[in-house]
UniProtKB/TrEMBL annotation:
It comes from the Bacteria. It holds the Pfam family DUF1697. The lineage of its organism: Bacteria, Pseudomonadati, Pseudomonadota, Gammaproteobacteria, Lysobacterales. It comes from Luteimonas chenhongjianii. This is DUF1697 domain-containing protein.
């Protein structure tokens, strides 16, 4: 059965967007997904399903909206696509904890750099359905802005690496 990675937007351990990962796994299992498991408490779900990427996205978004009472965006990638995202990293020599992938539903727009502000020397590159950003000094104090990334969800390269490996297990 094919493996997929589902990445939830605006989900965290506490505060707004709180969703216990045990509830996410239960939700996925009740939707019929197999081998549902999470990685760190920030909305990373690995599952197996014979459904398409679009079907998985629709089922999870509907279940999450019912749970949260508001829309929760979900980006879905196959195991092979996650490996491709890693292979396409334009910053392989940079620190993986300072390089993020912003997962999008669609290809970045042609003008994806419009409105970008990189006062700390941050670098950005477009991928297939991703944006890659390297935060040289780290994300904590960065004033970096990239409007094209607003509809996506970001994970650092360490997390992407682990999710890609989990999807292949």
């Amino acid at each position: 059965m094919p493996a997929y990675v589902a990445l939830l937007r605006a989900v965290n351990v506490g505060g707004t967007g709180k969703l216990p990962m045990s509830d996410l796994v239960a939700m996925a299992k009740s939707a019929g997904f197999q081998r549902a498991r999470t990685y760190i408490a920030s909305g990373n779900l690995v599952l197996e399903s014979d459904s398409s990427e679009q079907q998985i996205k629709a089922v999870l978004e509907e279940a999450l909206a019912g749970y949260a009472g508001k829309p929760v965006g979900v980006m879905v990638r196959s195991a092979a696509q996650m490996s491709e995202v890693l292979a396409a990293n334009p910053f392989p020599e940079k620190a993986p904890n300072r390089t993020v992938v912003v997962f999008l539903d669609e290809a970045p727009p042609d003008d994806w750099q419009a409105g970008m502000v990189a006062p700390g020397g941050e670098e950005a590159r477009a991928g297939t359905r991703e944006l890659y950003i390297h935060f040289g000094e780290g994300m904590g104090q960065s004033r970096f802005k990239l409007p094209a990334a607003a509809r996506g969800t970001a994970r650092n390269i360490n997390t992407v690496t682990r999710l890609a490996a989990m999807a292949l297990e």
